[in-house]
Amino acid sequence: MELILKEPIEKLVPKLIAFNNEELKNQLLPQLEHYKNIVYSEDQIANAKTDRATLNKLKTAIEDERKRIKKIYLEPYNHFENQVKEIVTLVEDTSNTIDSQVKSFEEEKKNNKKMQIVAFWNEKVGDLSNLIEFNAIFNEQWLNATYSMKKVEEDIDYLLMKTRQDLDIISALGSSQVNYLKDFYLRTFDITKTLQEKTRIEEQEKRLQELSQKTAQEDTKQHDVVTLSTEEETKVYDFRITATRSQVELLKEFLIKNNIKYGKVPTKGE
Predict the structure, then answer these.
(1) Taking the model in full, what pTM does it have?
(2) Among 12, 83, 106, 150, which residue has the fewest nearby CB atoms (within 10 Å)?
(3) Both 85 and 180 in a single domain?
(4) 82 and 152 co-located in one domain
(5) Of 36, 39, 38, 16, the residue nearest 28 (C-alpha)
(6) Phi/psi at 32 (5° precision)
(7) In a domain? residue 148
(8) Contacts of 114 (CB under 8 A, 6+ apart)
(9) Domain check: are 51 and 86 in the same one?
(10) Number of independent structural domains in the chain
(11) Does 142 reside within a domain?
(12) Please, is 201 exposed, middle or buried when counting C-beta atoms within 10 Å of its C-beta (0-12, 13-18, 19+)?
């Protein structure tokens, strides 16, 4: 079944459209050259507008004729194209109907295969069931028709074996962050990245410890400075004040509160 032309296309193709191409160009070029070389002065703007209108009118006339010819030439093809598109649409509609059934069948096969994979996973996961979710390790490629169930099972067996080995490696590290590192691994399933994370944590802890020690040393220095400032030499100062009785009482209270000794200024002979 195929599309067959009733006449060879060579017979249907029209001849080249002949028109006074060279004659028209020979007439136009001198005039156009004339217009190009004109430099209009301010009082000649009206002439410039007239010349522009004349050229635009000529261009429009030529373009309109081109479009008319094009429409005539394309009319047989457009008719042919519409007929072909109608047939193609009929074929596509039928193909899409079949396609939906094929996709439905393939989707059902994938769902059945995924159920088999889940069942195998539940059978093999064992003590890791509370640590690893199936969706975390699921590979969409497993559902492809070209990916055999045997290969899927081999992938799962290898993944579980490697996970157990890697978790044992993390336990053997003796790190204080062992639980965090195991959690990190179970999110990435990448032992190299996990070891890099361990190094990062240790370096961060080291920097924090150094900062803590530096802060403690600075606090000690500040405390020593304060202690030295409180151990200043004690001297005796004699002075006279002019105050009310209540102000004197307040002064006494201040002196007592700050452990400052005070007393009467001795006179000569005392």
Answers:
(1) 0.54
(2) 150
(3) no
(4) no
(5) 36
(6) -65, -40
(7) yes
(8) 142, 143
(9) yes
(10) 2
(11) yes
(12) middle
Enter the tokens of residue 104. 């439905």
Residue 159 tokens read as 């993944």
Each of the 270 residues of the chain gets a pLDDT tens digit; together they read 788 777 777 777 777 888 898 999 999 999 899 888 888 888 889 999 999 999 999 999 999 999 998 998 899 889 999 999 999 999 999 999 999 999 999 999 999 999 999 999 999 999 999 999 999 999 999 999 999 999 999 999 999 999 999 999 999 988 788 999 999 999 999 999 999 999 998 898 889 888 888 888 777 777 666 565 556 667 776 767 887 887 877 778 887 877 787 777 776 655
- What is the DSSP code string of 77-143? HHHHHHHHHHHHHHHHHHHHHHHHHHHHHHHHHHHHHHHHHHHHHHHH-GGGTTT--HHHH--GGGG
Length of the chain in terms of residues written: 270
* Domain coverage including residue 216: 125-228
Per-residue tokens: 13: 């193709």
